[in-house]
Amino acid sequence: MSIILLEKYSYDEVSYFIDFITNNIEKYKLSKLTNDNCGDIPSINDTHPLAMEYGNLIADGTENYTSILPAIGIELVSDNEDTPNLLGKGSGVIEFTQALHDEISAIPLVDRYKQGWLIADETLAEIQAAINAKGGEKLYAKVDSEMLSQTVNVSIWSEDSILTRYVYLVVRSLLHKAKVSGSSVGLKKMSVNGEMGLYNYDFSKTLHGAEFNVNFIQKTISYEIDTDIVEITKVEHVAKTGIPTNANYAGVTGVGKETS
Question: What distance in Å separates the CA atoms of residue 139 and residue 129, rounded to the nearest whole number?
Fold first, then answer.
C-alpha cells in the first residue's frame, strides 16, 4: 500500500493579517498623525517586536543599536480543535484528479502555503507519478476535516505612549475591517479584543505596548491518497453515505461517514 499525505487549510492566517495591514495602513497617514515619528507603513513582521528588538541589541552589542520601533508583530498563538459537534467534523472520500493536481502545481511554492496547500513539489511529483501509473486515471483520497479555533496576537510597541495609542487605533480599525475579507478566504467568526497600557523596561528606557487577540475559526482538511484504490463509484455521495459496498479498493481503513 502506498500512501501520500497532504494538508489543506483555508488560508495562512499570519500572512493574511500581515498582508491586510500592510496593504491598507498607509491610507491613515500615520506620519502626519504622529509628526513624522512613525512611517505611514511601520515595521510589520511575523515576530514579536520586542523579540526583534532584543535581536538588534544583541547583534550590535551596545546601547546605540538601531531600533525597529515603532513596530507591529503578528503571531499565531493558539491553535485548537473547537466544538466539532457544533461546527462540523467529518470524513469521506474524494477524487484527486489531474486537473486538481495541475491547479495546485500552478501555484508557486512560495505562495502555496498562503492559499492553504501544505504540499511540496516532491509530493506533487509523487501524485503525478501515481496518476501516470494508472494511465491518467484519477486517484482517491480519504479526507478528514475539522474546524480549528485559532488566535492571532497582534503586538504594537514604540518608545512613546501617544505614538503607540495612534497605531493602536489605526490597527483596531483595520482588524475590524479585516473581518469581511477574512471571512471570504475562510477565516470565520472573527472577534477582536485589545489591551492598552503595556510596558517594558529591559532596554534602558520605557517602551509602551498594546496588543490584540484576534480569534477566529477555519477549516482544515487532511488528505490521505491511497494509490491502491482501483475504483469507487458514486463518489459524490460518499460524504453522506460512507464508502459504497461496491467499491473496489485495497488497504483503506478507518473511512467513516460525515458526522455533521
Answer: 11
Q: What are the φ/ψ torsions at residue 243 (nearest 5 degrees)?
A: -65, 130
Count CB-CB contacts under 10 A for residue 157. 28
User: Cα(248)–Cα(232) distance, rounded to whole angstroms?
Assistant: 6
Q: Which grid coordinates belong to 23?
A: 496593504
Strand partners, 231: 248
CB distance 259 to 236 below 8 Å: no
What do you get for the CA distance between the two ends of the chain, in Å?
30
pLDDT digits (tens, 9 = 90+) for 25-57: 999 999 999 989 999 999 999 999 999 998 888
Cα–Cα distances in angstroms (integers) from residue 124 to residues 2, 19, 141, 230, in the given order: 14, 27, 14, 20
Structural domain boundaries in the chain: 3-11+82-147+221-241, 27-81+150-219
Which of the four CATH numbers 2.40.30, 1.10.287, 3.40.1350, 3.30.1360 does domain 27-81+150-219 have? 3.30.1360
Q: Strand pairing partners for 144?
A: 91, 222
137 has pLDDT over 50: yes
The DSSP annotation for 189-223 comes to: EEEEEEEEEEEE-TTSS-EEEEEEEEEEEEEEEEE
SS3 236: helix
What are 214's strand-pairing partners?
152, 192
Amino acid at 64: N
Q: Where are the alpha helices (DSSP H) in the chain?
A: 13-24, 30-33, 49-60, 84-87, 98-105, 109-112, 121-133, 161-184, 238-241
